[in-house]
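Predict the holo structure. Ligand: iron/sulfur cluster.
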Amino acid sequence: MANIGYIQVVRHCNHLCGFCSNPTSPYTHDFESMKVLVDDLVARGYFGAILTGGEPTLHPELPRICRYARDAGLHVRMITNGHNLGNDGFAQDMADAGLQIVHVSVYSTRPAVEEQLRGIAGSIERAERGIAAAHAAGIEVNINCVINALNADHLDEGIAYWIERHPYIRHFVWNNLDPSMGRAEVNQDQYTPRLAAFELSLRRALAMLERSGRTFRVEKVPLCFMTEHAWASTETRKIVKLEERVVHFLDEKQTVRQTDWGHLYADVCDVCTLRPICGGLFNRGDGYDPAELYPVFVPLEAVVERILHDPGDPTSAFASLGEWRVAFDAHNAVRPEPSAPVEAPAVRVGRVNEYGMRLYRSKRESEGRRAADRGVKMERENEELPPSGGARQPA
Ligand code: SF4
């Protein structure tokens, strides 16, 4: 299985997205504590690591940990807002450190919308400069986009923009907003989209990408809202390929291992032909309405075949539909009831020390002012901070 794990290398950021699900925490990493997490993914037999945040380019030892992960045999990617990627020599340093793919997050190619979502002006230009630098350095560039209430009606516009201006970008990733954590949780009213609000523009965007020979993935969107492209659903691919995912959260959640890809199903799902391979409705945070779901009646086998024989993704362990069916049924026979991601007993993720506490306090103060100016609520105060003094761990 081609499992990829996530390592949050920092939790602070230079942007201020109103729907950030992983905002600043008091936990920080040094090289040694990041190394432990790379070793953990290697010990789990994982294929790769995704360096993320917060904004990972803010960690001064990012190239070093990237090199360490590559030397340990992992495939390495990074998710960034692109703000620092075009800084002098940075993309080349990351390329030299072995970074293979960079996912640059841009939510809208309409400057006013992007500014409202990012809490900062000029972010598209900065991201484009970074994209060009990464491409010139030989790093594959993908575009990530969080679907939200403000960009829901023009997802396809962004695709036309990227195809025209950066034709070398060949892969796109959509994540429907996770309204359960961080600022996304407290700003649900502003940013959580209705599923029907993006259905059409997502369909147009995916069709445009398919026509142009590009590839894509879509996460947290029920298959009834992307039926034609069901094979591109991240959850469906994980369900079909029996994959898991580990996230090393740089906060009190620590290590989360996700083995169950099903969310919430409505009564209508009982008659839907795609039910066995559908992730359903993302229900953590209660941001979405199950009444929007509707059953579809398309052959499940066609979706599975497309995933098993995807020439752009040779990671499937199953040679045929029959072989897959046997493994899939056996897997489900022993699978526990759908549940929230399980905490895995694992390594310690980062630490809380004086430096982390000072950073957390000062970021909350400055971000609080910027958020108030922009009409965005700040995430809840971290309630599980270790008490001052003895419980903090040394740097
Ligand atoms: S009706 Fe339910 S099972 Fe069918 S595609 Fe929609 S969410 Fe998935």
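The longest strand covers residues 140-147. The CA atoms of residues 116 and 221 lie 24 Å apart.
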